[in-house]
């Protein structure tokens, strides 16, 4: 059963005439890694922002389980159901890795009292030990920062994780390590992981590859084989 379903979704930016996305339909399931590929300007980031609930499609519907995103509380959706990982990490660099996670938990309204302990555990899961967790983000390497970015996306235990070029600024070994973490989250923890990427290595590691071209989306094939 799909966790996220797009039915005939069309979108154009305000003040523009041409649709960026036209009649897109796709279904995304738990426990799978999806790669979204397509030329620069094809609409990949636009699709992610619709899925993330940052923007609303003008035609069609995006269903979370069976509920239309237009009709549910999108702030709550963002705080509970979806975790976002960015190319440029988007962390607070003057705070420690741990503080970044705890802050994100506070913003998402996570109620648990032992947030620090949970944050250390999340960071450990993505390969950040305690000593590193207590260091300011600006003193961490790019790969370490992206690990923190993943831990932050997991801070409210979302079902869906979306990532916009998560390995673009990283060397090959680090890229593979980050991909390994994202794949484990899907295969071992049943998350639905959707990655926008230009990288062949990333798309070939995905379970399913979908391509956007001329406003349409289509299944390209299976990676990971
Ligand atoms: N805020 C905006 N207002 C108007 N047009 C926009 C806006 N943001 C993006 N676009 C246009 O929408 C189209 C799709 O952009 P989008 O960023 O989704 O593409 P992309 O596939 O993610 O590209 P890239 O791979 O370069 O990041 C482009 O033609 C872009 O110029």
UniProtKB/TrEMBL annotation:
Family per record: Belongs to the ABC transporter superfamily.
Return the PANTHER family for the record: CELL DIVISION ATP-BINDING PROTEIN FTSE (PTHR42798:SF6), LIPOPROTEIN-RELEASING SYSTEM ATP-BINDING PROTEIN LOLD (PTHR42798)
Q: InterPro entries from the xrefs?
A: AAA+_ATPase, ABC_transporter-like_ATP-bd, ABC_transporter-like_CS, MacB-like_ATP-bd, P-loop_NTPase
- For the keyword Transport, the answer is yes
A Pfam family assignment:
ABC_tran
Q: Name one GO cellular component term.
A: plasma membrane
Domain ABC transporter intervals: 4-225
- Provide this UniProt record's keywords sorted from A to Z: ATP-binding, Nucleotide-binding, Transport
Q: Which superkingdom is the protein from?
A: Bacteria
- Return the protein name: Putative ABC transport system ATP-binding protein
A GO term for molecular function: ATP hydrolysis activity
